[in-house]
Amino acid sequence: MRILIVEDDFGSREFLYSLIKLEGYDVKQASNGEEGLEVYKEYHPDLVISDIQMPKMDGLEMLSQLRSDKSDAIFIITTAFGSEDYAIEALRLGANNYLKKPIDKRSLLGLIKKYKSIVDSRTLAKKAEGRVVEKELKIEFDTHFEHISSIVSQLISEISLKIDDSDKTNIELGLDELITNSIEHGNLDISYEEKVEAVDKNTLVDLYNERLGDPELAKRKVIVNYTQKPGYSEWLITDEGKGFDWKSIPDPTQGAQLMELNGRGIFITNFLFDEMEYLGRGNQVRVRKLFN
After folding, report:
1. Which helix (H) or strand (E) holds 51?
2. Would strands 135-142 and 97-100 be described as parallel, antiparallel, or unpaired?
């Protein structure tokens, strides 16, 4: 996976470059948005990690130009405490995620690893040809995290409508997030508090394995119903958990809460689709993407 770092602060840029390079990724760097666009045109990265406030051209303007060119690169913005409004504006412009400064090494590498599996799975997804305008599909799969990328890839390949690469990226990331939530918080009954603690202690994999050791939890399924009609695609994701009170999730747009983990995935996913709602007791989520 090719990664581009755009950061005006030399120390921060070198830290990110060295960290990512040591993990074996192909990585290049730029010192501002203007230079970042030039490197992007030659390098065609799969992932861009960019600061917002930079000289010559800031991260928001660079992001806007990339998205206007229908770039399918995954875009992570980095922002300091006190600049939450910039993070929200970046999401509106098409950023896919954000990290607060100073960058936490585990959070960054965890995101990169997650996105690498999505980028790698793109080679498996074949664009459907023909004139299919309506379709209904139901996929059922076991509670295993290693299945998520292939399921997302399969769902993408079922879209028979003409879509931009940037829209395709949003759908990939959104479905990955929602299916992961269905497994974590639904089928495995992991609370947001338990996940935050496990992430802080770097024991998330241990927590997964502990829950999968329970036969009742391990046998649960995730079901994805896909519907395609002229002008839109819709996904209904259902888990077999007990559900949750999704209305109780803190509003991440309130000050420092934007930078916290609790409810962040749901917040970001709202920007990736045109419609999103939880149904019933909270173990179903419906998302829709509109197309011209």
Report:
1. strand 47-51
2. unpaired
Domains of the chain: 2-121 (3.40.50.2300), 126-290 (3.30.565.10)
The predicted structure's pLDDT at residue 188: 96
Is residue 9 over pLDDT 80?
yes
- The residue ranking higher by pLDDT, 19 or 80, is 19
Q: Which residue has the tokens 């690169």?
A: 73
> Binning pLDDT at 50, 70 and 90, where does residue 29 land?
very high
Q: What is the mean pLDDT of residues 248-261?
A: 57
Q: Are strands 232-239 and 221-229 parallel, antiparallel or unpaired?
A: antiparallel
* β partners of residue 36: none
DSSP three-state, residue 291: coil
CB 33 within 8 A of CB 61: yes
Rg of the chain over CA atoms, in angstroms? Answer: 19
118 three-class SS: helix
The C-alpha atoms of residue 271 and residue 92 are separated, in whole angstroms, by 7
**And the tokens for 123?**
């080679």
Report DSSP letters for 100-138, one per residue: ESSPPHHHHHHHHHHHHHHHHHGGGPPPP-S----EEEE
Angle subtended at Cα 214 by Cα 209 and Cα 217, rounded to the nearest 5 degrees:
95
Q: What is the mean pLDDT of residues 75-83?
A: 80
Q: Provide the pLDDT for residue 228.
A: 93
Q: Output the six-digit token pair for 224.
A: 């994805």
pLDDT at 128: 46
Enter the tokens of residue 260.
């916290």
Instruction: Kindly report the number of other CB atoms within 10 A of residue 201's CB atom.
Output: 10
